[in-house]
Amino acid sequence: MRSAKKKQLETKGWKVGTVAEFLQLSPEESAYIEMKLALSKNLQERRKGKSLTQEQLANLLKSSQSRVAKMEAGDPSVSLDLLVRSLLILGESRKSLAKILSEPHSAFAA
Amino acid sequence: MRSAKKKQLETKGWKVGTVAEFLQLSPEESAYIEMKLALSKNLQERRKGKSLTQEQLANLLKSSQSRVAKMEAGDPSVSLDLLVRSLLILGESRKSLAKILSEPHSAFAA
DNA sequence: CCAATATATGTCATTTCTGACATAATGTCA
DNA sequence: TGACATTATGTCAGAAATGACATATATTGG
Q1: Do B39 and B87 touch, CB atoms closer than 8 A?
Q2: Cα–Cα distance, A7 to B4 (Å, whole number)
């Protein structure tokens, strides 16, 4: 969260911390979720970059539109496995996946 | 596979290719399996580095000795999720995990 | 060699993930 | 506005992953 926004909310009476704090996540749980969100976000970027609808991507992945929507939304019912396999099918390399995984996701920044 | 060894086997009548070729894996499937194997290997290294038995690690992970054995063996019944969560609990960072994931695994080298 | 310890392998009930479907919500364009 | 396309959300039966257990197979130290 941008510190300006944080300050603004605090002024209005909100106690604002990280998402991890709010959800009472351990560092490991946070890292795990951050990784999934980073992949989710990238999946959507990749799809849009290729001008595909969720339906079309679903066909490529032999999945369904609703599952693609859940993947992109970071739904907890979606596994790392599915995200990784999907991105590989979309053409990501191990190296590029690694890069994605190592980069922080804005919603979780301290 | 080292090319000297490869040549030797071919001389004896073996048709030797990559593991991926033998198993008829697509590039995506290969990459996925390579990533799992890289994590498996690292999990074992981490465990041994801490001088833990599989039983002790299992307790840390709230899992069982047999599942730890399967994780380290790269058993197909083990998910990326489990490997990643385990390594995070063992203290790996997202960055170090990314590094592991991006590095090739010997058994799959072309 | 024998014990003791550690690791591997097989199986299985329970839990979790998945694709599929229906339908709601949102967006787009004339 | 309204039809049409796209995306989001809820649900569920079937598939896959998980922990646990038994037991087999190393491995280690006398």
Answers
A1: yes
A2: 65
Number of cross-chain residue pairs from A and B with Cβ atoms under 8 Å apart:
60
CA distances to A69, B17, B50 from A14, rounded to whole Å, are 31, 62, 43
Contact A94 B35 (CB under 8 A): yes
Kindly report, residue by residue over B19-54, the tens digit of the pLDDT.
666 667 899 999 999 999 999 999 999 999 999 999
The reply to whether the CB atom of residue B62 sits less than 7 A from any atom in nucleic acid chain C is: no
Residue A25's pLDDT band (cuts 50, 70, 90): confident
Count CA atoms within 13 Å of residue B74 on its CB side: 13
Given CB atoms, is B99 within the 8 Å cutoff of chain A? yes
Taking the model in full, what pTM does it have? 0.85
Q: In chain A, what are the domains?
A: 28-108 (1.10.260.40)
